[in-house]
Design brief:
single chain; mainly alpha; two-stranded antiparallel ribbon
Amino acid sequence: LDGYVQGPAFDNAHHRYSFDHHKGCIRLVTTATCEQVRDALLLGLKPERFTVYLNDVDTDVALSVWALRNPARLIDPWVGRYITAAGLLDAHGGAYPLVYARRQIEWIGEPETRARMSGTYERMSP
């Protein structure tokens, strides 16, 4: 997730999928990792028996992992709004003017923020 793996984005023959919005993409039109995961799941990707690799535990990745573990919840409109808002804020460096959801997204990302401020971020696990 989010740039951990280098290689093809999709390898259906081996059930390998790389969701990323950092390398080799146009940032303005490529959605954040959590949005890519949500869309893949809603379009039929079955996450059973996947091994997930990640190199960060920011809000984007945390929501991606949550979506993989809770695909049935993705039809909830509130979940969709939070994933979209978090994705836009993540993909555009926080510059996107989503004032209506910023507090909720900051709450979701609070463990990461607290760990970065306390110097314990490198020891976190998702």
